[in-house]
Amino acid sequence: MTWWTTWTISKRVANFLKMEKPNRFLQLLGLVRRANQLVTGEGFVLKAIRSQSISVVILASDAGPSSMKKLSDKATFYHVDLITAFTREQLSQATGMNRSAYGVKDPGFARKLIELVNTKGE
Fold first, then answer.
1. pLDDT tens for each residue of 14-47
2. pTM of the model
3. What span, in angstroms and rounded, lies between the C-alpha atoms of 81 and 52?
4. Does an H or E element contain 39, and which?
């Protein structure tokens, strides 16, 4: 192998390792949906926040400003964690649903998702 090929391969491996945590987050989000522990849609997520039946809110980073404000204010008031690290396209691809707001019911899943987001850069 030439030095160029080795450098290209090592750069691809480095890029793969950088993307490992976000991919794990999105894969786990898909698992949460298949486990029927996901509330989707802005109205349903707001209702779930008010009834305190969800542990974390996942909001697309490219959601509309009014939706972003409404959900973030409600999540802050009811002390529900909020994750805005992913775009609507990434979240939709992970869950198979074209939504910008998701709520996770199960506290175990929520804890792991928060952990994956907090350690994303490491």
1. 444 444 557 899 999 999 999 999 999 999 999 9
2. 0.79
3. 12
4. strand 38-40
